[in-house]
């Protein structure tokens, strides 16, 4: 086994920091706005269901934009597209902060979502390309810090802003941060020469099927979570559109499809996205259930509940950089197995927590489940990118991110359904973590399908 110099070039570290700063904007804005639903409904004198479209519109815009980003990154180059995404996001943030009625707020939140739909998959694409197979695990681990802390910091930051400032500052604070990220990106993100296949025409029919198909599925799941409403139509429409895309992609000849079907011929890729999808479902179910437990069972407010759930994100932020770095040297399987076992034991511990349990125990269990999930997430992502040929990195990143969006929506929907069926908060809380445990057991059975030989170790990296 050849030794690996795991030191990262300072220029690469600077680029990683700037990319993660921009990537954090979308994650924070999505979760910050979720805690302000009541405040916004009062401010605009409208119903909770109507103001909910400010968050739903953002989510749908993100999901619908991702397939376009898959094509555009090679057509226009990563740096130009990244700067364009930041500009759209900053304009959307400024406009949302100045919104004069509920309709304008929903429209400007959707504009923010378009910017986030460009930025979010580009975080994966730009970092994977910059790191290469040799440092894929370590760089994905660093990115995991943002993925772990973003959903936790958002509600805390949103609660703090609402306690101290007007609701408009939830959006306006993104403007100076976005401008700073834009100026830094101009300096440290390297220019890219468009790929050889950059002149390929856009698969318009594929985009018309894939983007609304995934958006419809996310809409169905988010509506079932928020309103328990009518979800059959978007669910059936989304499934039909995705089935239509699959047929189109398999028959495409003149214009390459947005997502190549051959991407799913690789066992390692399918195993990787399956682990990340199921892990995302378990993670978002945990992050959604914990604050409800602290609020409904212990009577805490939004800000206190957010702080008490923070150890789950902190555990992931600690584990992912370390696990990613180790996976570059030792491979993914062993670390991922250990992480899934730790997360599974932590989920089992949550099923024993009751109303009279001292709060230190759920805090420790949350830290442990975050550590476990971080230990299997970063090595899996590193393994996935080491096995992807260079031309398919953008497509693989988009698939991974769309499944993450779907897993998040499904996790929230399932938690809501379980709590509604259970009636009693403690019974529902236990049911949620039995479900999370089941997901983690499935992950354990899939981990052996990850590649056993890492290109970074053998020196035979994918091109």
Automatic annotation (TrEMBL):
Annotated ranges, domain Major facilitator superfamily (MFS) profile: 15-454
A cellular-component GO term for this protein: plasma membrane
Main location: membrane
InterPro entries to which the protein is assigned, alphabetical: EmrB-like, MFS, MFS_dom, MFS_trans_sf
GO terms assigned for molecular function: transmembrane transporter activity
Coiled-coil ranges (or none): none
Keywords: Cell membrane, Membrane, Transmembrane, Transmembrane helix, Transport
Localization, UniProt: Cell membrane
PROSITE patterns membership: MFS
Membrane topology qualifier: Multi-pass membrane protein
Ranges that cross the membrane: 12-36, 48-69, 81-100, 106-127, 139-161, 167-185, 205-225, 231-248, 269-294, 300-323, 335-354, 360-378, 399-422, 428-450
Family: Belongs to the major facilitator superfamily. EmrB family.
Alphabetized PANTHER family for the sequence: MAJOR FACILITATOR SUPERFAMILY MULTIDRUG TRANSPORTER MFSC
Protein name: EmrB/QacA family drug resistance transporter
Organism: Streptosporangium roseum (strain ATCC 12428 / DSM 43021 / JCM 3005 / KCTC 9067 / NCIMB 10171 / NRRL 2505 / NI 9100)
């Amino acid at each position: 086994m050849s030794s690996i110099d795991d030191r990262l070039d300072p220029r690469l570290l600077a680029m990683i920091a700037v990319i993660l700063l921009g990537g954090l904007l979308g994650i924070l804005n999505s979760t910050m706005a979720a805690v302000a639903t009541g405040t916004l409904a009062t401010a605009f004198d409208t119903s909770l269901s109507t103001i909910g479209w400010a968050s739903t519109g953002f989510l749908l815009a993100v999901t619908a934009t991702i397939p376009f980003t898959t094509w555009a990154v090679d057509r226009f180059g990563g740096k130009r597209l990244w700067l364009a995404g930041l500009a759209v996001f900053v304009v959307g943030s400024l406009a949302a902060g100045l919104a004069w009625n509920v309709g304008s707020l929903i429209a400007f939140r959707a504009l923010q979502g378009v910017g986030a739909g460009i930025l979010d998959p580009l975080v994966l694409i730009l970092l994977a390309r910059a790191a290469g197979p040799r440092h894929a695990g370590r760089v994905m681990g660093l990115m995991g810090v943002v993925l772990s802390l973003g959903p936790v910091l958002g509600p805390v930051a949103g609660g703090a802003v609402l306690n101290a400032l007007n609701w408009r500052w939830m959006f306006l604070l993104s403007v100076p941060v976005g401008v700073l990220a834009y100026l830094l990106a101009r300096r440290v993100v390297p220019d890219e020469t468009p790929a050889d296949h950059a002149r390929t025409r856009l698969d318009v029919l594929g985009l018309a099927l894939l983007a609304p198909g995934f958006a419809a599925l996310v809409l169905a799941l988010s509506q079932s979570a928020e309103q328990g409403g009518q979800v059959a139509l978007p669910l059936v429409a989304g499934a039909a559109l995705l089935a239509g895309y699959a047929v189109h992609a398999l028959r495409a000849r003149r214009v390459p499809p947005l997502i190549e079907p051959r991407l799913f011929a690789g066992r390692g890729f399918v195993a990787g996205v399956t682990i990340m999808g199921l892990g995302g479902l378990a993670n978002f179910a945990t992050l959604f259930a914990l604050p409800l437990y602290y609020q409904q069972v212990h009577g805490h407010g939004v800000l206190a509940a957010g702080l008490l759930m923070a150890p789950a994100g902190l555990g992931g932020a600690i584990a992912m950089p370390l696990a990613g770095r180790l996976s570059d040297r030792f491979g993914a399987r062993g670390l991922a197995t250990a992480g899934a076992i730790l997360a599974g034991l932590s989920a089992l511990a949550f099923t024993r927590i009751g109303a009279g349990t001292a709060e230190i125990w759920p805090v420790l269990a949350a830290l442990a489940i975050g550590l476990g999930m971080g230990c299997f997430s970063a090595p899996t992502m590193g393994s996935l990118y080491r096995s992807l040929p260079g031309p398919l990195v953008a497509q693989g990143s988009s698939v991974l991110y769309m499944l993450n969006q779907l897993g998040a929506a499904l996790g929230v929907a399932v938690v809501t359904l379980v709590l509604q069926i259970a009636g009693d908060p403690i019974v529902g809380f236990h049911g949620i973590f039995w479900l999370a445990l089941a997901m983690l057991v499935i992950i354990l059975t899939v981990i052996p399908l990850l590649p056993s030989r890492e290109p970074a170790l053998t020196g035979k990296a994918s091109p």
